Amino acid sequence: MTIIAVKDDVMAADSVANAGGRLYPVLVPKIARGPNGIAGATGSTSDCVAFLAWFAAGECGDKPAYTGAGDEEMQAIVLRPDGTLWRYGAKELPFQVTNPYAVGGGYAWSFCEGAMLAGKSAEEAVALTIEHFSTVGGKVQVERLAR
Hints:
Low-confidence stretches: none
Structural class: alpha+beta
CATH architecture: 4-Layer Sandwich
CATH topology: Glutamine Phosphoribosylpyrophosphate, subunit 1, domain 1
Number of helices: 3
Number of strands: 11
CATH superfamily: Aminohydrolase, N-terminal nucleophile (Ntn) domain
Strand order of the largest sheet: 5-6-7-8-9
Largest sheet: 5 strands, antiparallel
Distance between the termini: 30 Å
Strand content: 25-35%
């Protein structure tokens, strides 16, 4: 599972993959920069890698098709240069969401979002989520939006 959080022009994510209850370091970051902002993706690794590559390349062409591989449906959040936040799903059109916002598996996203609403930064909220949930882990990746 994954946790990705956004607050105040900062996106943060954990850095492991959960397969069969075991945590493994990921070989590619869960957050990518592109000409249209920064994006983070969670869910099937193959779907996330395809989405983030498409985003980093400027969102040229159609959004990659959802493969359905793995247990989790792909979810992504995109922080645009104007500060707006958008959620993308494997089977849905993108829609705007409020800031702060978190995505991830299980209940980790609600814990993380609650930490941000209680005053923690995105980085601090992801670190707390890693501390309290066995399904996420590793170092926290942090990307700041350049305006």
